[in-house]
Design brief:
Among the domains are: 20-139 and 155-182, Alpha-Beta Barrel (TIM Barrel), CATH 3.20.20; 406-563, Alpha-Beta Barrel (TIM Barrel), CATH 3.20.20. Helix content is 30%, strand content 17%. It has helices at 84-95, 133-150, 182-198, 214-223, 226-231, 247-254, 278-291, 325-333, 416-421, 436-453, 476-488, 512-527, 540-548, 559-563, 567-574, 591-603, and strands at 7-10, 14-17, 23-27, 36-37, 44-45, 100-104, 155-159, 205-211, 234-238, 264-270, 295-298, 302-303, 310-313, 318-322, 341-343, 350-355, 360-365, 406-411, 459-465, 493-497, 530-533, 554-555. The two termini are 57 Å apart.
Length: 605
């Protein structure tokens, strides 16, 4: 499916177009489970494993102990039977049309690392030991040489880094990773060129540095001295700034245009959690318009969640559905093929490519309107186009998944995290007590971990009690500060409730629901985050007024729903909302009145 242009029979008799991809990236691993004599010579050491890394993300490496650098046939130091499945996949990809391979590394071998952990340092800082810079380069070069000689795998380039300037790679991470700062990268690049040349691999390019943002790539490239820039034959970057970032500036700095350093650019990793394919098309077009990459690579075509083209369960080895973005990507890669020239256009939503050999023009356009539009293309520069010219057209309608996936963390009503937040209950003397920052610490840490663990398109909400209704307790000003910090961690929504942590409060004498609605408006305005109003919202007109008055982005209905399971139908009728979608068995009903008439007729039978 990935590497052929043929139509493939997928499961359930589904026929799908192959994507015809022609580049594969090989991840050379940093894991092994052997025991070594420590550097001090008095103890033994083994790889330290993050408790959060799944087994299938531990990539098995080849160099076991740092010895026999010039003798890769020494089986005591080199295990060339490792990682057989990934190598088999590369072979199958080559059989099906892949003609360019790049090697990259998420982490050096574990024994090259200061803490022996190939997921990162404890604080996310430097983890590759300075005395291992050359060893790391020798490892990559040796694998590239062995792969060419023994496995029929010829790498066009070796990329030694993967988002290595990020401080987010820690010893508790869920994948192989390693922070390698700019100065260390410079040394590794110098050594890597030497080690490749010393093994007769002068034709293998050194690429760098797979930074995860365009801005980061600009900053990193500016930090490299001239001699290092000259050694880097191609600049790799990841597309995780999406619609933002210095694409144009990066191309002008390093690219083949006037004033650039004459390097080609690859976008070596892109992905997001929208299954529709619309952001994919938008960002791919922005890359082609401003960044001018000569390759564009989608991250993990098979994996769990809506990041992937094909949703799978790697742990269970199960194939799932095709996300609609699979078909959107096919509009680009099935028709814009290797060797074609991307033409300049004046439209961000149009990509044009020309095949000089077959005299074929390809135009891919994105329509974000809700209805069809007419687009006029000026083709006067193509003199041979006549009324008899055959024009083939393919259309993909991106499907918007209207389901809302939401996870809510409960920080209210006297539950565990609420007791940390409130100064009325938190009497701790450690880093989780005392100041507001300390009392918020646990809730922020939990939200951060959850945000990292769930899909990017899943809404993360936090329910809070905006006040304790008690002297020297939690109050609205602190709730605003908490909401600001939660937003910075990727929380999408604050569900604003109140009370529950301090006993003896006379709630029956307080108009808590009205205060909650007002607090939702204040938090939404001052913290700049969406809120949900809750509390005694029984009437549809009241719910509608809260939304129209911008008190909140959402209203959450609880007891009213338990009281009346048909509340949405009644609200639809009362608000005269004819866009409401009934369950399929009730399609023939129109509105609440028709539904109730049916129920009455049924009761009379």
């Amino acid at each position: 499916m990935m590497f052929t242009l043929k139509w493939i029979d997928y499961h359930n008799n589904q026929s799908v177009p192959g994507l015809g991809l022609n580049i594969a990236r090989y991840n050379v691993g940093g894991c092994s489970w052997n025991t070594l004599i420590s550097r001090n010579g008095t103890t033994t050491e083994r790889m330290v494993e993050s408790p959060n890394i799944p087994k299938f993300r531990q990539m098995e490496g080849y160099w076991l102990d740092g010895k026999s650098e010039d003798n890769p046939d020494d089986y005591r130091s080199w295990n060339w039977t490792a990682d057989s499945r990934q190598r088999q996949m590369v072979g199958k990809a080559q059989d099906r049309g892949v003609d360019q391979l790049e090697m990259f590394s998420n982490s050096p071998m574990w024994w090259m690392l200061a803490n022996l952990n190939p997921s990162g340092a404890g604080d996310g800082g430097e983890n590759l030991r300075p005395d291992a810079y050359r060893k790391f380069a020798a490892y990559l070069a040796t694998v590239a040489k062995y792969a060419r000689d023994r496995w029929n795998m010829t790498f066009v380039s070796v990329e030694p880094f993967n988002e290595a300037t990020s401080w987010g790679w820690t010893s508790q991470g869920s994948q192989e990773a390693c922070h390698i700062g700019p100065e260390a990268q410079q040394q590794v690049i110098r050594y890597l060129r030497q080690e490749l040349d010393g093994r007769g691999l002068r034709d293998v390019l050194v690429s760098a540095s797979d930074d995860n943002t365009y801005d980061g790539a600009v900053k990193l490239w500016k930090s490299f001295p001239r001699d290092v820039r000259q050694l880097v034959a191609r600049v790799n970057v990841h597309g995780y700034q999406y619609a933002y970032g210095q694409r144009k500036e990066l191309y002008e700095l390093v690219g083949t245009g006037a004033g650039g350093d004459g390097k080609k650019l690859w976008n070596t990793e892109y992905g997001e959690g929208d299954p529709s394919g619309i952001p994919l098309a938008q960002n791919l077009m922005l890359d082609l318009f401003w960044l001018h990459p000569t390759a564009w690579i989608y991250w993990q075509t098979f994996d769990g969640s809506d990041w992937r083209l094909i949703v799978t369960n790697p742990a269970e080895k199960q194939l799932g559905r095709l996300n609609h973005k699979y078909y959107v990507l096919s509009q680009f890669c099935r028709h814009i093929r290797k060797g074609m020239q991307i033409l300049s256009t004046d439209r961000l939503n149009t990509v044009a490519a020309y095949d000089y050999q077959h005299k074929r023009l390809v135009i891919v356009s994105l329509n974000l309107d809700q209805s069809s539009v007419n687009i006029t293309y000026d083709l006067t520069m193509f003199a041979n186009i006549t009324e008899r010219t055959v024009v083939s057209r393919w259309t993909t309608q991106p499907k918007n998944d209207k389901r809302l996936y939401l996870i809510e963390l409960h920080y209210a009503h006297g539950y565990f995290v609420n007791t940390f937040l409130s100064p009325a209950t938190n009497q701790r003397q450690d880093k989780y007590g005392g100041s507001l920052a300390n009392r918020m610490r646990l809730g922020l840490e939990i939200a951060d971990k959850v945000r990292q663990a769930i899909p990017a398109d899943t809404v993360l909400a936090v329910r809070i009690s905006f006040t304790d209704y008690a002297d020297n307790g939690w109050e609205l000003k602190q709730s605003v500060e908490l909401a600001k910090q939660l937003k910075a961690l990727g929380v999408d929504l604050i569900d604003v409730s109140s009370g529950g942590v301090v006993s003896g409060i006379g709630y029956e004498f307080l108009d808590t629901s009205k205060q909650q609605h007002s607090a939702a408006a204040v938090i939404q305005l001052e913290a700049g985050i969406r809120t949900a109003a809750v509390g005694k919202i029984r009437d549809p007109l009241m719910a509608e007024k809260l939304l129209r008055d911008n008190c909140s982005t959402f209203v959450f209905i609880g007891r009213a729903f338990l009281n009346d399971p048909h509340w949405p139908y009644r609200a639809s009728d009362q608000l005269k909302d004819r866009s409401f979608t009934y369950p399929k068995p009730y399609d023939w009903c129109i509105g609440w009145t028709a539904y109730m008439k049916w129920r009455k007729d049924l009761d009379n039978k």
